[in-house]
User: What shape does this take?
Amino acid sequence: MDSPQVLNANLLPSLDYITEFKDKTDFEEEINHAWRRAESECVENLLEHSQISEEMNQKIYDIAFNLAHSLRDRKSSSGKAGIVQGLLQEFSLSSQEGIALMCLAEALLRIPDSATRDLLIRDKINQGNWKDHLGQSNLMFVNAAAWGLMLTGKLMETPKQTSLSGILTSLLARTGKGIIRKAVDAAMRMMGEQFVTGETIGEALDNAKTLEDKGFRYSYDMLGEAALTEHDADRYFEDYTQAIHAIGKASEGKDVYTGPGISIKLSALHPRYQRSQTERVHHELYPRILNLALLAKTYDIGLNIDAEEADRLELSLELLERLCFEPQLANWKGIGFVIQAYQKRCFYVVDYIIDLAKRSQKRLMIRLVKGAYWDSEIKKAQIDGMSDYPVFTRKVHTDLSYIACAKKLLAAPDQVYPQFATHNAQTLATIYELADPQKYYLGQYEFQCLHGMGEPLYEQVVGKVSDQKLGIPCRIYAPVGNHETLLAYLVRRLLENGANTSFVNRIADKNIKIEDLIENPVQEILHTAEKEHAVGLKHPAIPLPHDLYQGIRQNSQGLDLADDSKLQDLNQAVQHYLKHQWNSYSLVDQLDLQDLAEINSQEIRNPADHSDLVGYVIEAETAQVDLALDNAYQAFENWKNASQDFRAELLLKAAAIMESRIQELMVLLCRESGKTYSNGIAEVREAVDFLRYYAAQMQSIDENGTLSPLGTILCISPWNFPLAIFTGQISAALVEGNTVIAKPAEQTPLIAAQAIQILW
Ligand code: FAD
Assistant: This one.
């Protein structure tokens, strides 16, 4: 829960920390606008900045073809897939049983302590009744395609979830108890080997030596993210500190470019790393980052800030800005930052970063990635009712954005050391040519790949040109940690491997021709534009969040609490409503309310701050209740006979009014029932959704259908959802042709009165 103080505080955090250094730059304005731009507009702009000559395109094609061709050959014959195939051989499993077992092992990983996990395997799983203990069996098999790919090294038809479930049950019934235990252990170990460089930093540094000897470099990632408590954050901080010491010693005086480095996640260092907690982030998280940076500087190893969810971008840029101007970090080139090409803003973030480097006289290490949170960004925007998505909806648009951003980064060699992280041979070849291989110099740029995923591709890249390699260095991102900390990372990698648009997935599918695999994104976009008669349209199967229930009803609109420009507007409204008082009284006898305090009224105070008087309530007397019942009874006949459409239309109208008053209702909910702002928004939206949902239900029922209204319905609602449940009950009853007497919870009559007035 947000702390109660936040309710009365200014929604806009004071940005003193930043304004000390600068005014908001034009680049930041651009970053903010780009989020709301239509995808097609962004793509048109990117196309202008991604022009590549015919001659260069041909060279890119040739290199990409060769890389992809040898990669496909290697994949099927050897490599990681081979190790994982050991599982099948060791336990004489069919590949389908192997897939089912990997799914089971992944589900078991979600049990946080190994003692409980062991007990569960021993007592329950071995008996075959795993379904009762691992939640919904279907959910367990969501990653089956990715496991299939990794177990066998090739895409195979993924068995249906029901048959996987049958396979697992019969496997458990058939196999001896000890064997399952061992097989699950082996499966977990393999997940570790596939994705993790070592359980400890010492082990990882040792394991890295083989590829370092071949010219690879490393950036270590101490697994763990999204600290939920201060204790978690302390532990991760300690892990990072120890890791920097170890990596620093192993670096043996190399510099940030040639030596190993560390990657950190800010969500691991603070449990409330989010926009609504900006001040705490600056006061509490920033000193931790600075400490780590100072330590990294003493060893001259690079410290890179990983990119996470899109709504954290602006916050992380603020922290980066402070870091760059830190006098103690002057003359150090090791500050690293990740930018995500799938964000519509990325192109402008590059401008901002180059400008920042100029202003602070730094050369920044900038890792360009496509972005690992695509599924959750899309889903979150839909759930939150955003006006658009922060990310592109077609993969090829992300690919294009990557090229446009790469061009800009390469054109600013004094300000940035670009680090191109990709497993896609076409993207790799494009960067290689854009950077002009004839002019390559040590320290110009590097590639990056993930441990366990990118080595086969980059073994063709790292090394001498005389050995038929491309002669460009590659840094391996090397996760370090044990099974307990692996899960969030593992799930992202599985989504990546399992997505049928991803390069690593498609390269394994021999039905896809190499030519198709390495198609140039500009050409692909132009081909699609010909068919669709427009450039850069968003994916046809991904409607904008407000059209999510296409043709049925509109999704309710949210308010984006991470958007500074929206916050400014919201802040004004909030300041106004923080002082406002509301009244609530029975509406049946048209009371004249000249002076509420003089009538028998009661105060309603903010449960989180008793000095805050939110308004007054006059509770109904028995006579008013009788009158209400009477009115409802009298009105029933007319209301019942009104057309269904008419009743539905009224609900829709109420939804529109409620949505237009979201700012006021949100503040009232916060003050009367002690909700946080985000809970307040969610509640108003739920009420709006109820109104639209019941209206749509009514509109879908045949006018002469079997509706039989009951008469007068009494609706009593609880205090915990004083608007949403209140509105939901009433609107469901009303739209069917009933009349309604509504009694709100005694703690929350003010918001209920607003809902009733809106309905009236
Ligand atoms: P490709 O197969 O060419 O591209 C896959 C990517 O395309 C997806 O990951 C997604 O970004 C994008 N995409 C897929 N479908 C769609 C769609 N429908 N619409 C729009 N875009 C789509 N990611 C982070 O977020 N933060 C990090 O800090 C980070 N660090 C990384 C470090 C390294 C060294 C590497 C190699 C990757 C890192 N990643 C990080 C992951 C990265 O963002 C990509 O998920 C991953 O590299 C896959 O991209 P690709 O170019 O290799 O493969």
User: Anything to note?
Assistant: The pocket of flavin-adenine dinucleotide is lined by residues 306-307, 338, 340, 342, 369-374, 391-395, 397-398, 421-424, 427, 448-450, 454, 477, 496, 501-503, 539 (CB under 6 Å). Residues 1-22 have pLDDT under 50 and may be disordered. The longest helix spans residues 54-77.
